[in-house]
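Appendix B, example 12.
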Amino acid sequence: MKSKLLIGLVTLGIILTGCGKSSISADEGSSIASSTATEYEPGIEEAIALEQSYTEEASEEASQSTSSEEQHAEVGDIVLPKYTAMRTDEKGGTIEHITYTAHDYAGDGSEYTKEANVYLPAGYSTDKKYNVMIILHGIGGDENEWGLNKSTSRVKAIMDNLAYYGDIEPFIVVAANGRAGKVGGKEGSGINSFYLFGQELRNDLIPYIDSHYSTYADYSEGYDLSEAREHRAIAGLSMGGMQTINIGMGECIDIFGYFGAFSAAPTSNTASKTASILKDNEYPIYYFYNICGLQDKVAYPSASAAAKNLPQLCDQFVDGENFMWQEIAGNHDFRIWYLGFYNFAQLVFNK
């Protein structure tokens, strides 16, 4: 297991040890991994340890107070405590664990079964239409890394309370496994499969969600996913932040309208590359939100290179209108990523 994990994480180790480029292709990453994996073992272990060093569940059960004097959510540097309180009554949403048919895009293309976790807001009804946010994990995680596989999930608590206090219109959250291949999961890495996930999003996961839940898409065989792009968002932490940039904006701009990158990992496209990719883009970008910790040795160089000056390079991003770069004291862990989710949840679906 350890040797497989090293292959998947070697590109991250390159950054931590101070050598190599900040952006390399999947093929380059695979080539480097096969030849020099053990050289970067200390850096890789550090990255994994940071990613898994901190997690937090919902706090004590929420009260029913709705006093107008209470402070409401806002995009900022803290998650207000009342938004992390667990709701177990009818005002709390539900979590479903799903399986769906995907394809081994990193292998022979054969069908296999994938898993994901789906948050449905309180009062979910097929009589209503819902926006959808897909959230992605880091290089050492899977669909459970965001904790959206248990009732005490902090993500669930944030969603429940933002909706309860009227800060957002309730929406569906899908915590997916961002590897588009059979190799990977809890006992492997499948580094190349991260870069092929756009195919799974387009062909497998989104069609499943649109066909099984009450979304804004008019699902049918061969339907046009772009027609509901203003009702879809994608976000991720670390490697998932890279996927948001490289795949979400770089390949799937026609099916997503909102993008959130939390501590975007090494191999994220640079701002100049994204500007070049989007040069002829005709789809509106409703919001691109970024956050990274200033003490994050794993991701700050790549995340800032990917996004910090993007509005200066591409006129499709306007700081304060459809773009935000946020950097605060913090490391490569969930203290930053829970805040990122909390802020991004308030920014999406407000066009």
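The radius of gyration is 19 Å. The chain has a mean pLDDT of 85.
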